[in-house]
Amino acid sequence: MEELKHECGVAMIRLLKPLEYYEQKYGTWMYGLNKLYLLMEKQHNRGQEGAGLACVKLEANPGEEYMFRERALGSGAITEIFDTVHNHFKDLTREELHDADFAKRVLPFAGEIYMGHLRYSTTGKSGISYVHPFLRRNNWRAKNLALCGNFNMTNVDEIFARITAIGQHPRKYADTYIMLEQVGHRLDREAERLFNLAEAEGLTGMDVTHYIEEHIDLANVLRTSSREWDGGYVMCGLTGSGESFAVRDPWGIRPAFWYQDEEIAVLASERPVIQTAFNVPAAQVKELMPGQALLINKAGKLRLTQINKPRNVKPCSFERIYFSRGSDADIYRERKLLGEKLVPNILKAINGDLDHTVFSFIPNTAEVAFYGMLQGLDEYLNEEKVQQIAALGHNPDLEELEHILSRRIRSEKVAIKDIKLRTFIAEGNSRNDLAAHVYDITYGSLVPGVDNLVIIDDSIVRGTTLKQSIIGILDRLGPKKIVIVSSSPQVRYPDYYGIDMAKMSEFIAFKAAIALLEDRDMRDVIASAYRKAKDQVGLPKEQMVNYVKEIYAPFTDEEISAKMVELLTPEDTRAKVEIVYQPLQGLREACPMHTGDWYFSGDYPTPGGVKLLNNAFINYIEQVYQF
Fold first, then answer.
1. d(Cα 21, Cα 63) in Å, to the nearest integer?
2. Is 58 in contact with 298 (CB distance < 8 Å)?
3. How far is CA 381 from the centre of its chain?
4. Which residue has the higher pLDDT, 521 or 465?
């Protein structure tokens, strides 16, 4: 219903055979390049603001380029960057195009190591200079670094202050540039350590270069550079000398999966894209574990190394609810279960009247939860039928029996995504009028004045689309009651690990709780929470407490949902409206392995999250109140 942006998607490929092998077996030395394109397109859902790729050639001669990069902006960026790469090959003869040795010697992007990135900005920073991969150049191959990631850091200010204090000078005040500088600095130190060892052994000239490239240990680089990182991340990198790596945050917030066979090693943000691209079963695709790094050296040897000790492991549950592709077997099952677990609350909202209720979904990722909801409703209805048939006795009346057996759960495609609102239409009322028509409805899909309408979505965060469009357009069908169902719990707290919801004012749940405190003359609760938050400014982030929980504490979930209905229902709505949320316990039962639910519970996985929440709460209160 409301599109949440997510940062970002990564893909990495290491060819384990010479380019000639792929030319002979697959008819093209571009096998790796083509697979990268597929991995990126299959993860298009993870980033539509920009895309980039990097490539490294092994064994290039001095004076020959060995590291290449291409980046572009916009939703068509993947196509654009690959078109640009292929333009380098458009004037080749057929013989040249299929000559792997020629390609390796002469052509750009004809390498053995590839890395791709899809970007969604959650920081508001845009432009080509913020599109990954980022490059750090040097005359020594081993010191060249390309970096990209799916991440948000919560302690950029602290890291920036520390690295500038020791003389480093990041090009921009942004977490990606700062991390590039940190990893690059440690890569320099590692290369210099090996340089000294090589000289001590009496090596000179290119022998020193070869010694460095053969002995460099990226585990050392990653341990020393990532020690202070507070946030959710999967960071990928390539060096000019042919090393590649991916490292996952020790809290397991952001996901990564990898696969290896005799021909290739690959890593991506999602499991099913690897399954599809390489036609392998789920069991062969491994998850990169919290704090772990996948390292591939210049010789193509892969190893897994624990870089940081696993911490309070909290994989992001929104990955399961919304962001990741539903084609993953586990995610599909979990989303269905999320829908099924809503059945008791839905039945309560419609007073058990299944015969006069139509069920539908907002046309987006809620579709799988919708199927789970239908399955749960079918099971409930079947139990009702069994009880009704049993009540008929041993000689049931055939007409009554037929009536019972003919009862069905009524599902219809009620809402249709009709247009995408164009940003150039920005004038107040015109824009609002258009926003009201983003969705269309299927007329005649329910009986006006008789039927309830239950419509499921995967999340309700801001509520703006409900107020501007959904409720008003659904009300045109004339339902007796509209029940909006969220397959996830109430989003009450900001996210600082890669989802674009960072301000308290964005959350309809928070607005509803504040409104309830005002209605009930409980402004002292707001003032108390504010003073406690203000008093801990300047404390080490590890000592900070989430006092925003006190805003919600006086109320039940149902009270907050009821207040949301008041705030979001247009004045001229004829139907009664109710909002039903997934209980937090239902989420935990459906997704037991993904316990990162801080945006629902307020239980942040890292100290940096609590610190940024504290700041956001103080900023909100100081803009609204005079305490």
1. 26
2. yes
3. 36
4. 521
Residue 16 DSSP SS3: coil
247: pLDDT strictly greater than 50: yes
Ordered domains of the chain (ranges, CATH): 9-313 (3.60.20.10), 319-624 (3.40.50.2020)
Phi, psi of 610 (to 5 degrees): -65, -40
Supply the mean pLDDT for the chain.
Answer: 90
Residue tagged 């109710």 (tokens):
578
Dihedral sign for Cα atoms in the order 198, 203, 205, 206? negative
Distances (CA, A) of 176 to 131, 190, 498, 617: 10, 21, 13, 26
Output 418 or 124, whichever has higher pLDDT: 418
Residue 443 CB-half CA count within 13 A: 1
Residues 147-167 pLDDT 10s: 998 888 887 777 667 666 666
Cα–Cα distance for residue pair 106/65, rounded to 1 Å: 9
**pLDDT above 90 as % of the chain:** 72
Task: With CA atoms as reference, report the closest residue to 460 among 496, 415, 512.
Answer: 512
Dihedral sign (CA 122, 467, 560, 373): negative
| 260 φ/ψ angles, rounded to the nearest 5 degrees | -140, 140
Q: Are 128 and 73 in contact (CB under 8 A)?
A: yes
Task: Say how far apart CA 325 and CA 46 lie, in whole Å.
Answer: 9
Name the residue with tokens 């979990």.
334
Tens of pLDDT, residues 8-37: 899 999 999 999 999 999 999 999 999 999
Contacts 24+ apart (CB under 8 A), 197-206: none
Spatial contact of 414 and 447, defined as CB atoms under 8 Å apart: no
Per-residue pLDDT band for 427 (boundaries 50, 70, 90) equals very low
Reduce the DSSP state of residue 413 to 3 states and report it: coil
Residue type, 400: E
pTM: 0.89
For the cut 50, the answer to whether the pLDDT of residue 340 exceeds it is yes
- In the chain, the N- to C-terminal Cα span, in Å, equals 36
Q: What is the 3-state secondary structure (H, E, C) of 140-201?
A: CHHHCEEEEEEEEECCHHHHHHHHHHCCCCCCCCCHHHHHHHHHHHHHHHHHHHHHHHHHHC
